[in-house]
Amino acid sequence: DQQVKQNSPSLSVQEGRISILNCDYTNSMFDYFLWYKKYPAEGPTFLISISSIKDKNEDGRFTVFLNKSAKHLSLHIVPSQPGDSAVYFCAARASGTYKYIFGTGTRLKVLA
Amino acid sequence: EAGVVQSPRYKIIEKKQPVAFWCNPISGHNTLYWYRQNLGQGPELLIRYENEEAVDDSQLPKDRFSAERLKGVDSTLKIQPAELGDSAVYLCASSLGPLRGKGNEQYFGPGTRLTVT
User: What is the chain A residue with the closest CA to B56?
Assistant: First the structure.
């Protein structure tokens, strides 16, 4: 049972436009969510996180939105840059645990 | 600051052979994770250490996989004997520890890509 789902395996966006990556989860005990970016032949790199007590967290061009009632989070990148082309993973952790469940990833391609 | 170091980066072995992976976490990071990432999937936790203690190894196939973290710093992950289905990228990650905020961030190494033929 996939507790964290990224239903879009790939996304293409024009440079300068907004990229929106989506993630759904099923476990209502998840209270902390993270986004990672992964380039080929490298390990995932932490991008941004959000606690369940918030519904938005912003860091520069990256904003994560959390909708607890819908069990949905999204990552917005604006403006998108060619260097943002990578695979993006969302991950979630249940309250009181330190086990992170990862989604299957979305490959973002930003077209120049 | 040096990141998480893993070696080797690539390994090709025949099935039934043993293999070992090594990880050196970021200095001062008490928590160390081993993940396995299959093609097209996200990382899946195999084992988590707090210092030298394995606090979550529920996902580790203990019949063939073993891990250790002597002195609470470097760690090794071993597979013996390897099977075809073990082909994957093995990622090591570390974090400060079971703290809120910054301590929740995991820093990943580049991984070891294992191919079992």
Answer: A99
Long-range contact set of residues B45-53: C-beta below 8 Å, sequence gap at least 24: B45/A99, B45/A100, B46/B77, B47/B77, B48/A98, B48/A99, B49/B75, B50/B97, B50/B98
d(Cα A21, Cα A111) in Å, to the nearest integer? Answer: 16
| CB within 8 Å: A102 and B43 | yes
Closest alpha carbon to B109 in B94, B88, B99, B98: B94
Provide the pLDDT for residue B71. 86
Report the residue from A49, A93, A102 with minimal CB separation from B42.
A102
CB-count exposure of residue A60 (10 Å: 0-12, 13-18, 19+): exposed
Q: Does A4 touch chain B (CB under 8 A)?
A: yes
Tell me the nearest-neighbour CA distance from B15 into chain A, angstroms: 24
Q: Which tens digits make up the pLDDT trace of B3-29?
A: 999 999 999 999 999 999 999 999 989
pLDDT value of residue B98? 65
Please check whether residue B99 is in contact with residue B51, taking contact to mean a CB–CB distance below 8 angstroms.
no
Tell me the two tokens of residue B74.
């470097």
Q: Do A46 and B48 count as a contact with CB atoms less than 8 A apart?
A: no
For residues B32 and B63, what is the distance between their CA atoms, to the nearest angstrom?
22
Q: Which two tokens stand for residue A12?
A: 């293409």
Q: Which is more confident, A36 or B97?
A: A36
